[in-house]
Structures are given as structure tokens and as C-alpha cells.
Design goal:
Elements (H helix, E strand, L loop, with lengths): L8 H19 L3 E2 L4 E2 L2 E2 L11 E2 H12 L7 H16 L10 E2 L10 E2 H18 L2 H18 L9 E2 L12 H17 L3 H17 L22 H12 L8 H17 E2 L2 E6 L5 E7 H13 L4 H15 E2 L2 E2 L2 E2 L5 E3 L2 E2 L2 H14 L2
Antiparallel strand pairs: 1-2, 3-15, 4-5, 6-7, 8-9, 9-10, 10-13, 11-12, 13-14
InterPro entries: 6-hairpin_glycosidase_sf, 6hp_glycosidase-like_sf, AGE/CE
Keywords: Isomerase
Organism: Pseudomonas monteilii
């Protein structure tokens, strides 16, 4: 397949819309200068929603966003501010790790320690360190990796989804989505430095996921461990996993990659309707939730490049993303099963998905 960046005007429009419409929202109205944090979400008039909380994960995702654009005006300064805020507002000086959220005044709100947040801190700090090579960033990255290894890791190669403020066991067990973003974080660490321990942890994680999370009939990645009651799969996560595994030389020949490669067709057949990626299905392919989310569309789009789907299909899917989710004022976060806009706010976490989608589309051929 020829390189899509030279042949698809849809990609150029997507990139332009992202750079000119979406990113500036978080340099201007989406930024709380007093707190040096992004607001959780903006409404369709670019006004911040009433502040209930700020999440460490949202801060980390925006750190990734601006470090990925570090050569653009104001991006380096914004990334530096986000990195400082991550430490200032969310780090737990007593027990270590990072709180899930703070309130509008900057006091710890949800004091639990969750793997999803810590995975994004590793991901963002690894990416940022790759750009700036500063010792303080490296030490924060190493501290986050140590916390994950010492507190979240289980004997079976998986990781607890959530722990108490003082690392008490909450009985959460492992869940798929935090494990995926931890794998993504480990891959980012390996992209910027040699790290034998992280590499071994990543391989063990993928082996454990193959054992405990892959459904045998269609090789789907389940959201809860195999055998859990009321389990389901999300097509967007199948596509996201496929991209992560297929783009990694380390993981491309693993059993987990073979499983997700096989699952792709089933997820596409039952989980994509009229170019829209549906939210949740059971393992038989029955739709549980037909909500269409922009992040799932973005994951499907970048995964399609790896499937050598052909420029016509790729262009058609880009057109679907553009027509259904991009708008002059930014984007639509969700549509319901009938195609009606069901969420009008724009969360600060979504640009991460669009940035990684564009990065994947532009560097792959």
C-alpha cells in the first residue's frame, strides 16, 4: 500500500483541523492558568464546565499532547507546566504514587491509587523525557515504574486495577483497559531507552493477558478476566490492542498478537456498523451498547492502515470520522445508536486519542 500521507486529502484536513481547531482550545479556554491545569471539559461554546475535579490522568494525557508538539509555539512551556502540576497537585508525598483526582481548590479528592492513572504518568513522562532529557523527568518516570512494580504487580503477571491511598487491597483485581495502557506505557519507555526490566515486564504482561483475558472462540480481548460474570468486549479496544502489538517488533510474533490479529475480523464484522464503531458487544457479537465514540473511531482508523485495507477504505473511514465527529468548533465526543449527538462537551482527555491516531497515520505506510 502506498503511503497515505501523499494520497489522502482527508488526512491533510484531519491534521489541519486538529492543529488549528482542537489544540488551540487547550492553549486558551481549556487552560486554568491559576491551577496550571487543563479543565476537565469544555462545552460547545468553548466554556469550561463547572469544576468538580481535576484528574491526574487528564494532566498526563495533556502532557503527552504538548510534548508531542514540542516544537510548536507555546508547546514546550505548556508541557513543562503540566509536568510541574502533575507533581505539585497529584503526588502523594506520604505514601508515594499519585492521587486519582483533586477538587476545585486543589485538595485531594479521590485519594485512591489506580493503575490507569499511573500507566498514563509513565507514558507521558517517557514521551516527555524523550524530548527534553531532563533528570527530574527521568526520576519521576523511574519512580512511577517502581510504584507499578512494587505495588500494582501481581504474581500472575497482571496488575491490580485499583488500590487504596495507602496501597491497601480493594479487591479490584485486574481489568483489561488499565493493562492495555500499561503495555502502551512500557512500549513508550522502550521507545526512548534500553530497559531490560521494563521489556521483561511487558512480555510477562502480554503472556498473562493471553492466558487470562483472551476468549477462546474468537480470540477476543475481554474487558474482565475470562470466566467473569457479564463479560463483554469493546471493538475499539480490539483495534487499539492490534495497533500496539502490530507496531512493536518485540510483540508482533507473540501469541497475544496472533489472537488480536484473529479477533480483528470478528470485531469489525459485528462491531462496525455503517463505518461507525459500536461501544460494547457480548462474545457472540450481540450489541450491548451501540454508542459511537470518537476515540474508538480513531483507533479503528489507525489500525486499518496496518491491515492494508486499501486507500478507498481508508479514505472512506476518514470521511466517516470527519463527517460524524469533527465540527468547526472542535468535535463531537459521542453519538447514540441512532446517530444523534449524545454528548456535547469536549473532554480534555480526547486530544490524546486524536494525536496518537494522527501520529500513527503519518508514520505508517
Amino acid at each position: 500500500m502506498s503511503n497515505p500521507r501523499h494520497t489522502l486529502p482527508e488526512l491533510a484536513r484531519f491534521h489541519q483541523h486538529f492543529a488549528e481547531r482542537i489544540v488551540p482550545m487547550w492553549q486558551g479556554p481549556g487552560w486554568n492558568a491559576d491551577m496550571a491545569l487543563p479543565y476537565e471539559a469544555l462545552d460547545n461554546q468553548h466554556q469550561p464546565l463547572p469544576v468538580q475535579r481535576y484528574r491526574a490522568m487528564a494532566c498526563a494525557r495533556q502532557l503527552y499532547l504538548f510534548s508531542s508538539r514540542i516544537g510548536q509555539p507555546g508547546a514546550a512551556e505548556r508541557a513543562a507546566a503540566l509536568f510541574r502540576s502533575l507533581q505539585k497537585h497529584f503526588h502523594d508525598a506520604e505514601h508515594g504514587g499519585w492521587f486519582y483526582s483533586i477538587d476545585a481548590q486543589g485538595k485531594p479528592l479521590d485519594r485512591r491509587k489506580d493503575l490507569y492513572t499511573h500507566a498514563f504518568i509513565v507514558f507521558a513522562c517517557a514521551h516527555y523525557w524523550g524530548k527534553v532529557r531532563e533528570n527530574l523527568v527521568a526520576s519521576t518516570l523511574n519512580a512511577a515504574l517502581d510504584i507499578i512494580d512494587q505495588q500494582f504487580a501481581r504474581d500472575d503477571g497482571l496488575y491490580e486495577a485499583s488500590l487504596g491511598e495507602d496501597w491497601a487491597d480493594l479487591g479490584s483485581g485486574p481489568l483489561q483497559n488499565p493493562q492495555m495502557h500499561l503495555a502502551e506505557a512500557f512500549l513508550q519507555v522502550l521507545a526512548v531507552r534500553d530497559d531490560a526490566h521494563t521489556q521483561q515486564s511487558l512480555l510477562q504482561l502480554c503472556e498473562a493477558l493471553q492466558t487470562h483475558f483472551i476468549e477462546p472462540a474468537h480470540s477476543l480481548m475481554l474487558e474482565k478476566p475470562r470466566g467473569a460474570v457479564d463479560n463483554w468486549f469493546e471493538p475499539g479496544h480490539q483495534f487499539e490492542w492490534f495497533y500496539l502489538l502490530h507496531t512493536s517488533p518485540l510483540l508482533r510474533d507473540t501469541p497475544l498478537h496472533a489472537s488480536l490479529d484473529r479477533a480483528f475480523g470478528f470485531a469489525e464484522q459485528y462491531g462496525v456498523k455503517d463505518a461507525a464503531v459500536l461501544a460494547m458487544l457480548n462474545v457472540d457479537g450481540k450489541v450491548i451498547d451501540a454508542t459511537q465514540r470518537i476515540w474508538a473511531q480513531a483507533e479503528y482508523l489507525r489500525a486499518l492502515v496496518l491491515r492494508e485495507a486499501g486507500e478507498a477504505k481508508l479514505a472512506s473511514q476518514m470521511q466517516a470520522l470527519e463527517a460524524r465527529f469533527l465540527r468547526e468548533a472542535g468535535w463531537y465526543e459521542c453519538r447514540d445508536g441512532e446517530g444523534n449527538v449524545s454528548r456535547h462537551d469536549m473532554p480534555s482527555t480526547t486530544p490524546y486519542h486524536l494525536a496518537t491516531c494522527l501520529e500513527g497515520l503519518q508514520r505508517l505506510s
